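Bug report (template v2)

What were you trying to do?
Predict the complex of my protein with iron/sulfur cluster.

What happened?
Run completed; filing so the output is reviewed.

Input:
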Amino acid sequence: MRYVGDIYRPPSEAYSLLVQVTIGCSHNKCTFCNMYKNKQFKVRDPEEVLEDLAWARAHYNRVQRIFLCDGDALCLANHKLIRILDYIKENFPECERVTTYGRATAALAKTEEELEELRDHGLSMVYLGAESGSQKVLEMVNKGETREQLIDGVRKLEDAGIKTSVTFISGLAGQEMWEEHAIETGKMITEMNASYVSLLTLMLQSPAPMLDDWAAGRFNKLTAEEVLAETCLMLQHANPTKSCVFRSNHASNYVSLRGNLPEDKESMLASLKRCMEDRGLLKDERFRML
Ligand code: SF4
């Protein structure tokens, strides 16, 4: 397999075959993100992608999951994505799911029929980074997508039968806007009705522009206890009408939670309160990572 630069994937794709369909991120301007800052975005030639898949077929007996990376592979024209999906269907009959990263605006740029076509050709799930439910915070971090676009993009994918897994970032709004971030994120989870929601916790690594803001005192990070208080407030406002799997099992989180919303909300809140009373239950700062 040929890879350009560092490769990122969601925790649940740890055992997936990773295939680069794009290089870098089509937006690449979020101030907290260091992932693709040194990559110039481009869509890979589908021929090259098929060659990589052929190499993988020749070397791996059993491939149950395939993840299409880098950022926003959903932005590919449908005919390009379908060529790749069809190749997978034909050559990896044992593959149970094909997933990708995508931006809400990429989903909104496709018609309902185009999304249904992708579903029919085997795209099972899209991972989206919403980061915050607050419009003010989205603007602050230069997300390049509005609250409304994020909600509509997720709903459009779910309505087309493609599951969504949406990530939010604890601590993203810092000391200044944590309550707004928590409440609006809870409300966004309610309005989106995504199949999966996950939390990671802010860690700033070079060359993320926000790192400079923090170093210059323009941004004040939350303490571990404050992150838990923010998560409690967010969960209190999260009441999706369709059952949603909620996880905070990312390596950056202080506490690992897993449950269904809204059914398991009270037990997850109780776990958080126990952790707030006993700091020994929190992950040590040294063991957190992105
Ligand atoms: S957070 Fe996602 S959309 Fe924003 S720059 Fe990073 S990869 Fe791109």
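What did the reviewer find?
DSSP finds ten helices and ten strands in the chain. The radius of gyration is 19 Å.
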